[in-house]
Design a protein that fits this description.
The chain is about 30% helix and about 25% strand. The longest helix is centred in the middle third of the chain and has 14 residues, at about 125-140. It has a 7-stranded parallel beta sheet with strand order 1-5-6-7-8-9-10. Strands 2-3-4 form a 3-stranded antiparallel beta sheet, with no helix packed on it. It is α/β, with parallel strands linked by helices.
Length: about 240
Amino acid sequence: ILHKSQLFLDNILLGTLPFRLLAAEYGADITYGEEIIDHKFVNCQRVINESLGTTDFVERGTDSVVFRTCPQERDKVVFQIGTSDAVRALKAAEIVCNDVAAIDINMGCPKAFSVSGGMGSALLSKPELIHDILTTLRRNLNTPVTCKIRLLNTRQDTVELARRIEKCGVPALAVHGRKVKDRPRDPAKWDEIADVVSALSIPVIANGNVFEYEDFKRIKDATGKMKIFIRKQACII
């Protein structure tokens, strides 16, 4: 699924179907859905919405659509899971895996709702759990499984974690160019992403400070041949 030069990453709370389709129409190779917590998704059932031509994943006992997709984006959309448990992540992924291009585990979100549940960037300090989640999904799914991390405290720590993740058999790794303590206004450390690019044999996807096309070119020059994430800036441009 990583065959072109540009990627698009939706905001973890804004990756709705209309926005993803719009991004794809404007040239995005891959789009990401909102981060959906496994606890919630395991209680969903798959429903064909004939009036809209969509596939809806509806929370049981309610009319609440937790995730919506359609055949038009089948080969582009990545389902993003927030999880802290391999078995629960697999159960959630099995519900949706035949309707998406890939499953992605969010290991970079520093928000309180993720970290307090042991998800997102809380996983960065738990390499054994990362290994358990990724290998469990890879063993049991035919759908590609990827993940996204943030920079760790040192360059060496980041590279070592990235290498451990690569050994889990993922086809690609996304790296956000900030550390957990950094704020969105802090500049992304593209040079530290470049260290990961040099250390791995799989594609590395760079994320952070891509506001305009010139930034896209600069980050490619700084980090080498790689894929690029555009997040909330796409809502502004």
